[in-house]
Design brief:
mainly alpha; 36% helix
Length: 75
């Protein structure tokens, strides 16, 4: 769930389960690799805290009034 001061239309996202996968899969999904960094926090948790790229783009487009496909609006 996301809060916004604009309407966010529905979108169907495939494979949005953040509890499944591994660091390599999450790295490919999000488009960045943390393997070369020495971090004090768990890298898998960093990946899981990221917003799914398609979801983020959809919310951004909704904020700008860009409709990429027919999307029902829920109230």
């Amino acid at each position: 769930m996301f809060w916004a001061n604009f309407r966010i239309g529905n979108i169907e996202i495939k494979e949005a389960d953040i509890n499944r996968g591994n660091r390599k899969e999450w790295s490919e999904l999000h488009g960045f690799d943390l393997s070369g960094y020495k971090l004090n926090s768990r890298k898998d948790q960093i990946y899981r805290n990221c917003v799914h790229p398609e979801t983020g783009l959809h919310i951004f487009n909704c904020s700008k009034g860009i409709v990429t496909h027919k999307q029902p609006i829920l109230f």
